[in-house]
Amino acid sequence: MKKLKMMNTLHDWLRITWSFLSGAIMVVYGHLLPVKDIMLLLIGLFIADVIFGYWAAHRLRGEKFSAKIIWKTTMPRFVISLVLVVGTFFWDKVFDQTVVSTYKVCGWFISGVLLANIVQNGYRITKWDVLMGLGEFIKNRTKTETGIELHNTTENEPHTAN
């Protein structure tokens, strides 16, 4: 009888803990729902940037795939980008910012830089002039809209997000 009571207590404790944790996770998820699309876009663009960066490095310099490089460079950039978007989202909510959504501007800029990197690496891989024109358009648009100038890399050097 004592063993059964202890099992019921343990079962109740696990059920309550699971209910609390799943509720807390859903609260966080529900609060961050407005930035879900930006997060998914950034995840997709980071994956594409890694693929095109590796492809360009393999084609131009004959480099082998290295997960170490991804964990050393891309993952910190990815985490910082997501923290910036979430942080600016919280900033907008705390200060009731309604004129301009800072988190959207942050997401636009990061995704624009990633798109420019993908286009530049695509040009280096294929030498297709349309991609160079698109890359120049993205760079000029970024400079016009934000005042930030994206830097050029050499022709043979694959470009990664900075």
Structure, explained:
78% of the residues lie in helices and 0% in strands. It has five helices and no strands. It is flat. It has helices spanning 2-31, 36-61, 67-94, 102-126, 129-146. It has 162 residues and is mostly helical. It has two domains: 1-31; 35-146, no CATH class.
Strand content: under 5%
Overall pLDDT metric? 83
In DSSP terms, counting alpha (H) and pi (I) runs of 4 or more, how many helices? 5
Sum up the overall morphology in one term.
flat
Q: In angstroms, what separates the terminal alpha carbons?
A: 64 Å
Helical residue percent band = over 70%
Total number of beta strands: 0
The SSE order reads HHHHH
Unreliable parts: none
- Main sheet attributes: strand count, strand direction, barrel closure: none
How many domains make up the coordinates? 2
The value of Rg in angstroms is 22 Å
Q: Structural class, please?
A: mainly alpha
Give a summary of the structure in a few sentences.
By secondary structure, the chain is mainly α.
Defining traits:
5 helices; flat; 0% strand; 162 residues; 2 domains; mainly alpha
How do the strands and helices of this protein lay out in sequence?
Layout: H1 2-31, H2 36-61, H3 67-94, H4 102-126, H5 129-146
Helix pairs in contact: 2-3, 2-4, 3-4, 4-5
